[in-house]
Structures are given as structure tokens and as C-alpha cells.
Amino acid sequence: MIAPDKRANRNAPVWKRGVSPPALIPYLVAGDPDLESTRHYLKIAASRGVFAVELGVPFSDPTADGPVIQAAAQRSLRHETAISSLLDWIGSIPREDLPPIYLMTYFNLFHHMGLRAFCEKARATGRIAGVVIPDLSFEDARDYRPVFREFGINLVGFVSPTTDPDRARRIVRESRGFVYYVGLMGTTGAALSITDSARKMVGQLREWTALPVCMGFGVSSGETAQEVLGFADGVIVGSRLVKDERQTDLWEKTFLEFVAARDRAGRLS
Amino acid sequence: MKAETVPGSTGKASPVLPDLRGYFGEFGGRFVSETLMAALYELEHAFRSGWKDPAFKKTFLGMLSNYSGRPTPLYPALSLSKEAGGARIWLKREDLNHTGAHKITNAVGQGLLAARMGKRRLIAETGAGQHGVATATVAARLGFECEIYMGSEDVRRQALNVFRMKLLGAKVNPVELGGRTLKDAISEALRDWSRTVGETHYLLGTAFGPHPFPLMVRTFQSIIGKEARRQFLKAEGVLPDALVACVGGGSNAIGLFHPFIADTKVRMFGVEAGGRSLSPGEHAARFSGGSVGVLQGTRTYVLQNGDGQIENTHSVSAGLDYSAVGPELAYYRETGRIAFDSVGDEEALEAFRTLSRTEGIIPALESSHAIAYALRLAKTMRADQNILVNLSGRGDKDVMEVSRILEEKGEIL
Prior knowledge:
- The structure holds 2 protein chains of 2 kinds.
- Chain A is an alpha/beta fold.
- Helices cover about 45% and strands about 15% of the residues of chain A.
- Chain A has a 9-stranded parallel sheet.
- The longest helix of chain A has 21 residues.
- The radius of gyration of chain A is 17 Å and the shape is globular.
- By secondary structure, chain B is of the alpha/beta class.
- Chain B has 2 domains: about 160 residues, Rossmann fold (3-Layer(aba) Sandwich); about 220 residues, 3-Layer(aba) Sandwich (Rossmann fold), CATH 3.40.50.
- Chain B contains 16 helices and 14 strands.
- In chain B, about 45% of the residues lie in helices and about 20% in strands.
- A 6-stranded mixed sheet of chain B has the order 3-4-14-9-10-13, sandwiched between helices.
- Classes of the chains: A alpha/beta, B alpha/beta.
């Protein structure tokens, strides 16, 4: 077991296995269709006690994303959603309307802003729990991890079905905030089929860490989410929600299905 | 002939690059999702063990010789030189390779590795279509299933190559994202690879992307420079004064340059696409308008805007129309070993016609950028000096597009 990081920042959610409810992490593309909608969704998510929101910052070349999130990013890129101005915007939202935020985007945006400049500004907002960077490999992260640590920004580690156990153990050890288990081979939004090896791997990861082990990619219904929460600590819902981002009513309805699934799973555990 | 016995060579060995993490100085790395990491390790292992295996090397060199037609000639282009006035221009005739460009060499190398790894399917990106054709060719020859990703803008302007790929049995997937050129094709190929990584090898076409691709592609393509160095020494007894190559991702350039790195008196020039102008979106001159960034697996020079979003590019030549450049070239640019400049659409089109007219050789539009730069450079040099240009591909694929452009300008031949 790895003890929680002493320097973990106070913007990150506190979570305890066996005590806290299952971790629900909805994913939103910031600025799709506009920042007002994003703000509305954040407020609803906060009111339902989600573990965190993964807030996607649009990037021109999202190599790990499928068509739904690619299209949302393209829509968002038409207005001002640069990472620096997004931090200002997040900082302006009243704390009670904001769930813990993990910024999700590709490494170039952090690199271009300058990692220290990003971390300083993120810390100054007092609202950023951490970052999720799909194209920052465990190996390359070696050069950048100390900077995130210094500023208490959680850098989330990814484990995939192709990760061998030794490597998974090292990734989990360096992960902060939560562990992201990529449930399927491919890009976001493909259909998930839950395999025995996924169950086994998630079980193994949970033995190695006190952090919530959350499974994402392809969780497309409340039923799937509930099934995932039968063996994982948390679930990340991406494309299914992003698909409805342009229609507020629809998004709320879909989101509440996932909240209900989390609550059912919580009662069963 | 050994390096130290050659006039103009220091014989100093180049540093062993990349390092174990795939970095050339501060450039390179493996910026990809965790799902692909196991495949990159598998590939690196297959490459390192294959390259040490005499049987693998024999098959590789054998195929280059009896299938692709290597060694390619080194040709003194005397009429072209006369037209320039100044130094003598030599052409390394990579255009005479099977399928019409240097791309086949890398496709053969990686195709053999894919077989060694037990993969059954090849995927590739392509810009001008040369790499797509090379991959489809190797897939046909070695019995792989094959799918090619190609930006829809490139599908339009390189229609001949699209037909060739189909004829060879490959499926061509037009990509409708972003600028609908090479960058977008690479993103789609990476997405395919994430889905299918167990059975599929991604046959990346240039010295770009995550480690070990830059190392592996450079190693395969270095045969260009090794041959050229030997051929030039045999013909002239000295080394050339300058090398010139066009640079998209950079495989023909690093392939020619790498065996000459220790020959410090040999100057090297990489030529990027200047497009219509050096305004954002109008060119692909990463070293003129770009800055250090991370794109598609590697840290290198990238064309990006003030927010870090990747800029679209433009070049008359699809193969140079790309927002980033190979990390090893970025490294040698930092150290000053390789100089870079750009040539615009107009000047490249002019060189395309000049080489056709003076030498009876129709070059690819990509290689025409190198020819144009050599013409400029030759004028500044003495008649007893020598420039060696990598004529990386032939222009058959471009004649329809050039004819269309000339017609638009009212210059019907």
C-alpha cells in the first residue's frame, strides 16, 4: 500500500476505500458548445457530489480521442478556450459551484505555456486538483513529474490492457489523485466489453494503492457504469456525456442516469 | 575507405544517438498513450535484435538489391550545373528505386520486422502517396493485409498514387479532419494502431514519431548516404563540399546526411517547404516559423499558434506539407551541424521544369525543393566544388497537378 502524498493539494477530493461513495468522474469538453453551458454542467456535477470532473481543454490534434470528442474539441476551438484563459475562467467560478477539477489535455498545451507557468497559475486559482495527460508517457513524465509535485498538482497515471504487471506497479506508485485504467484498446468512445482480465487487473491495482482505481473509455450507459463499479473504485464517463453537451436537458438526463448508477452501486457495496 | 583516411573528414565518431529513452539531446521521446507503449517496446526489441541478426540483414539488403534496384546511381548533372553556373551538381538517384522514391527502403525494412514480430496487418499514413504506395507494395510482396490513411486534400492531388495503392490491394481511407493532409493522416493511423495493436504494425514513413521510429527509419535510410559517400569518393577521390535534401518529416535528409555527420567539412542543407509565403498556415518551414513543441509522439520543432494549437500548413508538394519535423534534424539544427532554409512553391515548380528540360529527369515536387536550393547554392560556389543532392523521388505522381497549376496560370505547355 502506498500512503497518500503528504503534499497532495487541498483542492483534490478526499477519498477512502470502503467509506467514500464510488467515484463518479464525468468528462466535459470546456467550451462545448460554450463556456456558459460548461459552467452550468459543472454546477450540476458539484451538486451531485461527483468525485471530480475531468475538464477537457480542446487541442487541435487529439490522437487518443474518437470522433465524438474530436468533434466537440473542434467546436470549442472556435472560441477562446486557451488553457491560460480557461484557468482565469475557472478561478472566477464560486467555489460552491465547482467540483474538484482535473484538467485533461495533450502535453503540448502545458509545454507551450511552460510547465512552471501553468502550475503557478493553476495553483493560484485554488481550484485545480490535477491533470490527466494521455500522451505523456510514464517514461517522458520523468522529466516533468517533479514540477507537478512541487506545486501539488496531481499527475494521474494511466494503466491499459497492454501494460504488463511490473510496469503497472511502477505507474501506480507514481500516480497521484486517482489511477486511470483504460478499459479498452483504442480511442475514447468505442464500445466497452468488460473482460475477466480487466477485472483481474483492476483488482490487482487496488491491492497496490489506496487511491481510487477508476475505469474509463467506452462507459456508455448507467448499466455499464454500475457493472464497472462492481469491481472498480470509480468510473469515468466521457464520450457518452460529450455527445449530449449541446442540449442541456438531454445532458442532465444522461448525467443523472450515471449518478443513479453510482448510487445503486454504492448501496450494493 | 575509412573515415579518417578521407580528406575533409575528421574521422570523429558521431555521438551515439538517440539515448535509451529515444532522445537526441532535448528532442525525441515517446509521447504516446499508454496503450501503445508495449508495442513500441516490442518494436524496439525486434529492431535491435533484427539489425544484429546477419540473416535479417541479408534478407533486407537482398530485397533492396533484387527487388528495389539498389544501389541507386550517383549522376553528375552537368547540364543542370551549367544552367546554374558555379559548382557541379550531382544527383543521388533515389527516384530510380522501385515505386519511385526512397520510401521503399524503409517499407522493406519495417515490413520484414513486422513479419518477424508475427503481425498480419500493416497500416501507414501517407502525404504524397509515395509512402502509401511503398507500404502497399511491401504488403503485397510479403502477404500482409494493408490499410493506408491519407488526407482527403492529398487524395485529390495525388490521385495516381491512390489508384496504385488500390491496385496493390490496399484499402485507402481518406481523412476528413483538420487540414486534411499528412498530420491528420498520422493522427488517424495512431488511432487505428491503438485499436488493433496486437495484430497490426504501424509502418510509419519518416524519421518522426515516438522512439524507436526516428532511430529505425534513419538506420534503414542511411543506406542512401553510405552509397553516396562511397560512390562520390570513387568518382572524385574527395568528399562533396555540400549535401542538399528536402525535409518533410526528414527521412531522405537524415538518410543522406547521417553517414557524413563526422565529415565536418561537408556542409549540409535541409530544405523545407516555403509554400506561398512565410505567414502562418501558408508554408511548412518549421525551422523558420516554428518553436519547440510536442506532436504525435515526439518533442521537436512544430508550427503552432500562441495558444499551442498546431497550425495547418501549405505546400505545393504533399510530402513536405507537415507541421513538425524529425527530432534528430532538430537536434543537428541546434548543434549547427545542419543548416536549414526554405524554398517556396513557385521556385520549386521552376526547378521541376528546369531539371526536366536540362537533364530529362522529372523530379518529384518534394525533391524539386532540393533542386531549387542547389541551383541557388551552386551560384555561390566555385566550378571545382561539388554539391550532392538527394533526388528523393520521381515526378510521375505530380505531372497532373503541375499541369493543372500551369493551366491555372495560363501557361499551357
